[in-house]
Amino acid sequence: MSDSKIIASEILPIQKIRADFPILSRKINGKTLIYFDNGATSQKPQVVIDAIDTYYKNQNANIHRGVHTLSQKITMAYENARTTIQKHLNAEHAHEIIFTKGTTDSINLVASSFGKKFISSGDEIIISAMEHHSNILPWQQLCEEKGAILKVVPINDEGELVMEEYKKLLNEKTRMVAITHISNVLGTINPVKEIIELAHAKNIPVLVDGAQAVPHTLANMQELDCDFYCFSAHKLFGPTGVGILYGKEKWLNAIPPYQVGGGTIKTVSFDKTEYADLPLKFEAGTPHIEGGIGLAAAINYVNEIGLDNIAAYEHELLAYATEALIKIEGLKIIGTAKNKASVISFIVEGLHPFDIGTILDQLGIAVRTGHHCTQPLMQCYNIQGTVRASFAFYNTKAEIDEFLKGLERAIKMLK
Questions:
Q1: Catalytic residues
Q2: Segments making up each domain of the chain, as ranges
Q3: DSSP state string for 158-223
């Protein structure tokens, strides 16, 4: 993360930024919305809303299919969006960027296609104890189908990977490592570069779940050198229903198509089909055209602000909120890693997270409660769930102050 000594609140024009997000002026139960559920989905700036609106008003046509003007122009816009994403990730080729429905779809694509080609009985796949269900279930299902074995890297009490145990798990039977970049519950920023280097030393490919990372930090594919990287547009201030799979060219060429149909082919006969080159090989059917364009608009927007500035400011919010929360009697933060993103999950002794979240909602404060699609992680801490406050660069210390007042009120009401 960026140096916490930077006073990022003096760098970012917060009120101007907030004005870019129409929903932040909305009233919830008579109170101005305080949105601390950014880990679930982010809010959308006006430029993203406008990009989608413009598509349907002035550009609507299918891509890669027509010679008419609308089709040609929207095809160019869509492929320009792909290039924008390629440059943002510093991928080597635009055709290494595959449009999907989201992170879950991207991981399922790799698990299915890679697994079909490269996983056999007795092989091993490594994940971690902090994974989202979306990075557990596809691998678990693949192991059940193929007779492979799922191995899990444990975590310590602070919510950090036990790297010595990870090193022990890597062996000649390991065929894939699938790991989250940033935990959606703990906020832990994993040492993914080291994880990748250790795996590559044994010629093992690595998939990184970047869903929680892309809103907070720059994911540089040349620097990380991962084999696959997955994320969803809606976490990165873009539309829902669209996501990205980055894959190294050699792997994308080596694995079979995930879904087949219109758009994925070169030639079709009843005897044999020849599939298209990348990226179309993995993009069956009419895509979420406006979603891809909206994602590019979101990326351009955050790059104008600067991800380093965003990271520094969010670190400031994280430190401010953490310092106040640890003073509340009976409150325990789940996830205290040294290297952490702007996510705080906590429990309050004797109180159910759902009850706390319900009272906060009455005060116009949106937080997440429950197991956050990480039931195995909850089992590690022997808890049923947490309250999670996740911050974005449009949040403020004043909002955190209101959240703290609301939390103290909820605790008094419930005890």
A1: 373
A2: 8-45+306-410, 49-303
A3: TS-B-HHHHHHH--TTEEEEEEESB-TTT-BB--HHHHHHHHHTTT--EEEE-TTTTTTS---HHH
